[in-house]
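Researcher: Go.
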Amino acid sequence: MQRILQPGEIETIDRTHFARILLPNPASIFAERAARVRQLAEGNPIADYLHFMAKIIDAQHAAAATLSTAPLDAAVLAQAQEHSMPLMPALEHIDPAWHGVLGTLLDTLSADDNSGGLPAPLQPLIAALRELNADERNDIARKLLQQEGSARDIGISPFVMAALQVTFAQRASQLSVGDVPYTDPATICPVCASEPVASVVRIGPHMAGHRYLHCGTCCTEWQMVRVKCSHCESTKGVRYQGIEGGKDVVMAETCDECGTYRKIVNQEKDPMAEPLADDLASLMLDLLMGETKFQRASPNPLLYVAVAEEEAQP
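Model: Structure:
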């Protein structure tokens, strides 16, 4: 039975309400991402690479199911709220649990005999990664979180970042939206202070048509208005570039003010679009953008080719 609204109640309805923060669900996000990567691999020039990335994401899903992390301390939450700062800046809150996640992830991949397991060229790198002590691994993790990964570590960086991502996503999932402060600048994740990997125009209740920035570390999403640079927040000179003849599901949002671009993924064009997966599968767009004056604003956590190439230059 419908209830008739009384005078005064109608005025209290907020017709502009939308979700400010979308917290991750580790129980489903990695499985859905792996499925999207496999879908995007069909007919893609980098299909073999994408299928391997899907295996890594499958392993993330398996690791997430076994992970239990401690909630944030109430004092940390209060301090972040008081100072409008991210709740757990990644560099300062690397949970030791990530080492166990990494082990589970590597074990899952190594046991994947039905689909080939780890490629032979990677096996020595993975063996060396297993032999590193916790301090050495943490040092690599900190460098990658600061986007300072070296060419020497490029082979292991996706595995390290995959383990960190599971751990941070699990911790973020334990928060409530009310825990997450309004932060400044709005271009970094309000939970872990990482940069977004891409942005996404969402569909669905309380978020339809709104653009969200997707954190590459903890998988949290936060709302930012469209036609605003997600790197410098300028509203001037923001344009969109895509591949000619494409479906415009993934576009490069460029900014004349700061000279960067970041991809924007549109679920209104494809309801299955997923920011990290679609970013990963659209490397052709990155190659085309490499011929322009615009530099990519931040990397995909599972892809550090650009960092290695820059370091390799004399």
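Model: The first strand starts at residue 21 and ends at 22.
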